[in-house]
Design brief:
About 75% of the residues lie in helices and about 0% in strands. With about 200 residues, it is mostly helical. The protein starts with a helix and ends with a helix. The model has no long low-confidence stretch (mean pLDDT about 95).
Length: about 200
Amino acid sequence: MKKSEETRLSILKNAAQHMYIKGYQATSIDDILSSMQVTKGAFFYHFKNKEEMALAILRELMHPMMKSMMVVPLNYSEDPVKDIVIMMKSLLGDRVNFDPRYGCPLVNLIEEMTPLSEPFSQALQMLTLAWIDAIADCLKRGQLRGKVRQELNTKDAATYIVGAYAGARNMGKMFGPASYQSFLTQFIHYTETLS
C-alpha cells in the first residue's frame, strides 16, 4: 500500500473511532487529526470535507465489515432460524468491533444523520437494506427447504429482526450488556415462531 493510501486509511479509521464515541456532528476535523501525525492539508488532499470522509467510512470500512459479519454468514445457511440466532448472539457478544457503551456505529448514524443529510440517508439505507435482504433471502431459502413457515413474509420478518437489533443496541447503551441477555431470550422465542 502506498504512503498516500495508508494516510487515507488511517484518517478513515481514526475518524470512525471518534465518530463512534462522540457522534458525527460532535466530531471535528481537528478532533480527528489531533491524535494523528497528519496535517489538515493531508486531510483535504484526500477529502473535500468531513461529509465526504464520513461517506467513505460507510463505503470502505462499515460496508465490508457488515458484509462479513451480517451478510456472508447467512448466504450459506442450512438452518436459517438457528443461524440468525447465532448471528445475533455473535453481534451482541462482539466486544472487539462494538462497545456496549456506544451501541452500534450504523444505528447511531441512522439516528443522528438520516433526518439531516440525504447523502447519509441514502448510504445508510443501502447498508441497512443489504442486511435486511440477506436475512430475507436466508429465510426464503429456508422456506424452500421446509425449515421456515411458508406463509411468513420474509421481508417483514427481516425488517423486524434488524429493528429489534437496533433497539437492543440502544438498550445496551443505557443498561449495559446484561440487557442483551433479556433481549436474546425473547428474540429466541420470536425466532421459534418462524419455523
